[in-house]
Amino acid sequence: MKKKRKRLHFEKNIRLRERMLLIYIIGGIIPFMGISLYTSNQIGADMVNASRTSQQERVSLLASEISREIPTAERLVEKLCEDKDLQRIIQTKYEEENELKKEYSKLEEIKTYPSDYAESISDLTIYVANRVICYEKPFAYLSADVMAASWYKATCQSIQNTYWGYKEEEGKKYIQLSRILENEGGEQIGVVVIQLNSNRLEKQIQKGSMNTMLLLNDQDVIISNFEFNPGNRFLLEKIQTASQKSKTLDINRRVDEYLLTYQRFYPSVSDSNFTMVCFQDYQQIKGQLNRIRLNTYFIITISLLVSVLMIIGFSNAFGARLQTLRRQMHLVANGRYEEVEPIAGNDEVAEIYREVEKMMADIQDLTSNMVEEKVQKEKLHTRQKEVEFKMLASQINPHFLYNTLETIRMKARVNEQKEIEDLVKMLAKIMRRNIQVSNQMVSLKSEIELTENYLKIQDYRFGDRIVSRMIVDPEVDLEMEVMPLIIQPFVENAFVHGLEAMSERGELTIEITQNPTDVIIRIIDNGVGMPYYKLGDLRHILNTGENADQTHIGINNVNQRLKIQYGEDYGVRIDSREHVGTTIEIHFPKNHNFSGKNV
Predict the structure, then answer these.
(1) Rounded CA separation 296/325 (Å)
(2) In terms of Cα–Cα distance, which of 237, 283, 228, 288 is closest to 262?
(3) Are 343 and 328 in contact (CB under 8 A)?
(4) Residues 128 and 93: beta-carbon distance below 8 Å
(5) Are 88 and 238 spatial neighbours (Cβ–Cβ below 8 Å)?
């Protein structure tokens, strides 16, 4: 328990700067250094794997490049060796030049081979002993020097008298395919030599960063992008002893380490083979890794130093702002509001100060509002008494009117005045409804009946001059509870302000419909309408809830009641055009859970 108290005591007394530095060291530097060391080691392994993968991809790409060209040369050699016209021309002793030229015309296709297959072959030569036909390509004389060449001897000794080798000219080696040309009796009449076009392959090998070379029979270097010296012979020995067609090897030789990848491929008509080789000194990879590590550690060190300096600077600045906030709170606590100085900014200190400032303003307002609140309560109490008195008076007067109307109706019945009796009866129903309804919810059906009684009275009054109709969507639930007197005031306004002043026939339509969520009541008349500025004033009153004049007090009252009961999304909307008419829309929700019956 004592150790726990000491630890809590330590945590409570540590300053902001020391706390931030401690958090930075424990939560930042230590994990960061561990991750950096792990990442550095992982980068080394990834670099080796990347080099291994890169070598394999490069060897595969270069090997596929030359392996695409080999079949073309082999097909051409096969085609030439089977050409009967070529065999006949080589064996014929021509005495006249014209006769020879005529025979040469039969070899036009052979002459076009070097141009037709320029991407694959660079030269085509047919060595023959017949000097007469050797004055023009592709023929050349089979001299003693040619027969003494190593490639010629190897061709004669190889399987199927076919040999893949190379020809060296001016220090450059050219890959070539040579084959003995025989007649139908199996006698040698010449040698066909096709030289591959290795320019593209050589360019690809030269532009690579890895040490790359193409070997013939695992011993002769044909193309390379580095200077091959006797000290590298041990690499060839490793390849010669490897039996797989392709492999990646880790080679150790004394203190040297190499990563080597090769791929061997065999032409189909020869016992020769080509091997594409890439190798890389591990010291190069390690050198790259060491440079990356040094750069990484340098950047990490600089970043840590900058971070420490920034933390110290930030903690000092933040601590100074905390001290300033402490002084201002002390002044507020002692009630010395006039001495409080504002703290600018958007950080936590400034936010706390704004809360303190708000609290200070609330304290000042609290005192001044106490008296005002008391006065308002007294005014509210007086206003409630007035409302209660008016409600009592409004109940007495309708009762008196209802009794009087009932007396008039009975007199009309006695005197057989049917129209007067019906008018008084409907007016009595309206008055009875007004007596019954106070602040209770009513059914939509009763609101419709009230409006229909009012329309019947107006029909007696205006006759055919004003035609009214009510359309109710059968999907509307007539038993739903709604606020009282939300339709009749608008119908009355339509007659008083829109239709009575018309000289022409007036029309009034009341539509009650619903959508998936709301009930919509539209009161549409073709009356005199209203100018746009009056419409704007009325809409302003409906939107703001400001006190309306005597003309619009009923409309505003219904609108405010709807908004209070159902929310700001509901209420009354109005549209009107002068000399065209007016449309009133009343919106309220179809399904509404009332907390109580009172409106």
Answers:
(1) 42
(2) 237
(3) yes
(4) no
(5) no
Q: How confident is the model at residue 387 (pLDDT cuts 50, 70, 90)?
A: very low
Per-residue pLDDT band at 256 (split at 50, 70, 90):
confident
Coil/strand/helix, residue 191 = strand
Q: Which two tokens stand for residue 313?
A: 């600077």
d(CA 196, CA 584): 94
What are the pLDDT digits (tens) for 565-579?
A: 888 888 899 999 988
Residue 527's nearest CA partner among 455, 581, 575 is: 581
Would the pTM count as exceeding 0.70? no
| Helix 30-81, helix 199-206: angle, nearest 10 | 170
DSSP state of 335: T
Alpha carbon 38 to its chain centroid, in Å, reads 33
β-pair type (274-281, 466-472): unpaired
In sequence order, the 6+-apart residues with CB closer than 8 A to the CB of 293 are: 40
- Residue 178 tokens, joined: 């040579």
Strands (E), 398-478: 442-443, 466-472
Which residues lie below 8 Å from residue 67, measured CB to CB, with a gap of 6+? 265
Q: Which helix (H) or strand (E) holds 352?
A: helix 348-414
Spatial contact of 480 and 590, defined as CB atoms under 8 Å apart: yes
What tens digit of pLDDT does each residue of 334-350 get? 777 677 777 777 777 77
Q: Return the structure tokens found at 192.
A: 């066909």
Query: How many Å apart are CA 558 and CA 294, to the nearest integer?
Result: 81
Could you identify the residue written with the tokens 């419709």? 448
Cα 261 to Cα 43: distance, rounded to the nearest angstrom:
21
Does residue 235 surpass a pLDDT of 70?
Answer: yes
| Pairs from 346-354 (Cβ < 8 Å, separation ≥ 24) | 347/318, 347/321, 349/318, 349/321, 349/322, 349/324, 349/325, 352/325, 353/325, 353/328
Is residue 412 within a helix (H) or strand (E), and if so which, with residue range? helix 348-414
d(CA 284, CA 293): 14
Q: What is the mean pLDDT of the chain?
A: 78
Amino acid 367: pLDDT: 65
Return the structure tokens found at 420: 């007067």
